[in-house]
Amino acid sequence: MAPRTARALLCVAAAAALVAKRAPLPRSITRARSTIVMKDFPQPNVFDTDPYREGSRLSDRFKTDLQAGDKKKKVAIIGGGLSGLSCAKYLSDAGHEPTVYEARDVLGGKVSAWQDADGDWIETGLHIFFGAYPNMMRLFKELDIEDRLQWKVHKMVFAMQELPGEFTTFDFIPGIPAPFNFGLAILLNQKMLTLGEKLQTAPPLLPMLVEGQEFIDAQDELSVLDFMRKYGMPERINEEVFISMAKALDFIDPDKLSMTVVLTAMNRFLNEDNGLQMAFLDGNQPDRLCAPMVESIERNGGKVFCEKPMERIELNEDGSIKKVVLRGGEEVVADEYVSALPVDVLKRVVPEKWSTMPYFKQLDELEGIPVINLHMWFDKKLTTIDHLCFSRSPLLSVYADMSTTCKEYADDDKSMLELVFAPCSPIAGGDTNWIAKSDEDIIQATMGELARLFPTEIASDPRYEGTMKPRTFEGGALPELPDGAKLRKSAVVRVPRSVYAAIPGRNKYRPSQKSPIDNFSLCGCFTSQKFLGSMEGAILAGKLAAEVVAARAVGADAPGDKVIQQHVIDEAATASPKKPVGCKGRTAVAFGGGYTFDQAIKRELEGQDAVQLTPLN
Ligand SMILES: Cc1cc2nc3c(=O)[nH]c(=O)nc-3n(C[C@H](O)[C@H](O)[C@H](O)COP(=O)(O)OP(=O)(O)OC[C@H]3O[C@@H](n4cnc5c(N)ncnc54)[C@H](O)[C@@H]3O)c2cc1C
């Protein structure tokens, strides 16, 4: 046995003995809240892993055997989210001439951000980077912007449901290798699960580490709850861990989420010593991440345009693309075309002739999940936790005080919470369609939850009913708190179609980057790659699509087609061709993004995706 592993096993055994004896826990563990260190941490070693080496090999291919030489291609990439930009970056590295056509006036898609009238940044989503994001880490290195990641201490912070105002943590002890560091972190935490529950949880998850992807893929037909019941996991694991995990991973409840998603995340994160270590970008994504990608693309001969929405795809007789037509009539002719559109938009522009091809028909099985991202500015500083917090509350998923975690939004005196509100509709497991509710309703509900999360800090404020309820703290009732922190401003960003809904059975329908059309490839985080619908997934998918295009240009090998389900092939054989409904509208929501709602956006959503506005509750 390797000495590192032996040492780790000894530590785990010692910890187990400690837990079994119910020895009093060190103060640092019982009072996790007071031990969170308010500083950024050095970049962990995320480079000495197989996934990172694999990602690096692919990056290197673009500069070696995939170099275009005299086979340079003009490539039109539709969509300037992370995936489209990644595709363009790697194609330009290979010496091709990519041009990105982005519909909106800002790049980034689901990571886009903009400033409001006061100059405050509004983000489409609260975004966290993980050590186990190998292609993203490699990209930061290639762009020489690694110093823009603000690494946080290696732990996970959970709000305590039964003890409002209290937090508990999974602490990853430096020097203990994965997956033992995670096992130890769970063993040492005595607030969330009993030892018996912990021991019952481990065996069903072991095949994930031993058998790997095959076992993981085989669980896709099961929801997280189905899996738990099948393998006799205690129900409390769901309440204590899986609800917050599912909501953080896909904005969805565990009875709706495919177990493959949880296992995939665990497998990626738990196989690397620093896989679960988290980082915040030091500012808004368009400036701090998209802009350096654009610089790299342009330096190598590519171009990036905003406010160029694609209207339709026109085909040659043989079904290949003749040109794409932008809104306003501009025609784009290229050697190769790549869609970096979100799946919901892509489905609207698939040409009639392609609509009965199994490859495109399988897209019917995928759709984006709604989510809401909130910004709440307070007039005082709340308890500063310099980390992502899992709220474990019914309406909220994760949140962070961006005035503490992120340099660009830093404020010593006032907090700005960014919170992910989920599940926010029935498809995600909720019983209320919050997308259809007013901003006021959403903020009212959130203030009630915050009063519970911060019982000694959020002011009792007659504007928000939930803050006026009696609160409990450490078992006692709290008096009203008129001098607490008051909400001074908020922004509600609705993303009616965000990442693809990873409900059971979807993984098999995620299309390969290579399409059956000779001059057309696909990317976007929903396409087939091993990193779920995430920023890492978007970057990897863009890189894989670039590989398909670059390899075709020089006659080299690239990943091939993915098997399409027989029932899709059968249905496609008898399906009637469908005319594309087209990508209409001018707002972020029309392009698969998110925005603060006004009447114009609401009207567009009504026209395109009316189901999103059906009130349920
Ligand atoms: C609230 C929220 C929180 C999230 N948190 C995390 C997180 O913590 N960690 C993580 O890894 N991931 C997170 N994600 C997921 C992550 O943001 C996405 O997986 C990723 O950004 C998707 O990138 P993409 O390029 O595949 O798609 P998109 O970002 O959707 O890009 C598609 C682009 O195509 C453009 N487009 C659409 N129609 C047209 C058209 N007709 N013509 C031209 N262009 C068009 C769009 O404007 C957009 O720019 C979060 C997402 C949300 C919504």
Describe the structure.
- The protein is of the alpha+beta class and 617 residues long.
- Among the domains are: 50-146 and 283-368 and 501-574, FAD/NAD(P)-binding domain; 371-495.
- Helices cover 35% and strands 16% of the residues.
- The protein is built from 20 helices and 23 strands.
- Strands 8-7-16-17-18-15-21-23 form an eight-stranded mixed sheet.
- Helix 4 (50-63) packs across helix 6 and helix 10 (224-230) packs antiparallel against helix 11 (235-250).
- 51% of the residues are buried.
- Flavin-adenine dinucleotide (FAD) binds next to helix 5, strand 15 and helix 18.
Overall radius of gyration: 24 Å
Integer average pLDDT: 89
Within the CATH hierarchy, at the fold level, what is the topology of the domain at 50-146 and 283-368 and 501-574? FAD/NAD(P)-binding domain
Which molecules are bound in this entry? flavin-adenine dinucleotide
Largest sheet: 8 strands, mixed
Spatial order of the strands in the main sheet?
8-7-16-17-18-15-21-23
Query: With helices defined by DSSP (H or I, 4 residues minimum), what is the helix count?
Result: 20
CATH architecture classification name of the domain at 50-146 and 283-368 and 501-574 = 3-Layer(bba) Sandwich
Report the strand count.
Answer: 23
How large a portion of the residues is in β-strands, by DSSP E?
A: 15-25%
Low-confidence stretches: 1-38
CATH level 4 superfamily of the domain at 50-146 and 283-368 and 501-574 = FAD/NAD(P)-binding domain
Please report the first level of CATH classification, the CATH class of the domain at 50-146 and 283-368 and 501-574. Answer: Alpha Beta
Helicity level:
25-40%
Terminal CA distance reads 58 Å
Q: Describe the global form.
A: globular
Main location: membrane
Domain Amine oxidase: 82-549
Subcellular location: Membrane; Plastid, Chromoplast
Binding site for substrate: 421
